Amino acid sequence: MQHKSKRGKKDNVTHKRKRALRQEVKEAKRMKEVKEELNSIGDELKQFNAALIPYILSKMIEIRMGHRLLLQMMARQDELMVDILDAIEEDDSVKVDDLAQILFST
Compositional bias of type Basic residues: which residue ranges (predicted)? Predict the structure, then answer.
């Protein structure tokens, strides 16, 4: 009987080692799957960024062009105000109707 118990203990240790090895194999497979999944997500993000960057750049260009247009309009408005003030200085008989016509003619 003693012999059996020693053998049983030895088998038990072997069984534990095998179980630990199986567990390690399962964990390694799972880690490999997780790594592949992360790589896949990384590839998708790269594709998304590659598509998003031109869109962002085009919007930035549109905003910059809009800003430039706004500055041009403001400069034109300033020119109109200078023209109106010059007209008033040159001729005291400038009427409100004349000013309105100048403003709304452009």
Answer: 1-20
Residues 6+ apart with CB under 8 A from 66: none
If one counts the domains in the chain, the total is 1
Distance between CA atoms of residues 62 and 58, nearest Å:
6
Tokens of 77: 């408005």
In the 8-state DSSP scheme, what is residue 65?
H
Distance CA(25)–CA(96), nearest Å, equals: 91
Is 94 in contact with 87 (CB distance < 8 Å)? yes
Tokens of 65: 């062009």
Mean pLDDT confidence for 51-67:
88
Domain enclosing residue 27, as ranges: 2-104
pTM: 0.42
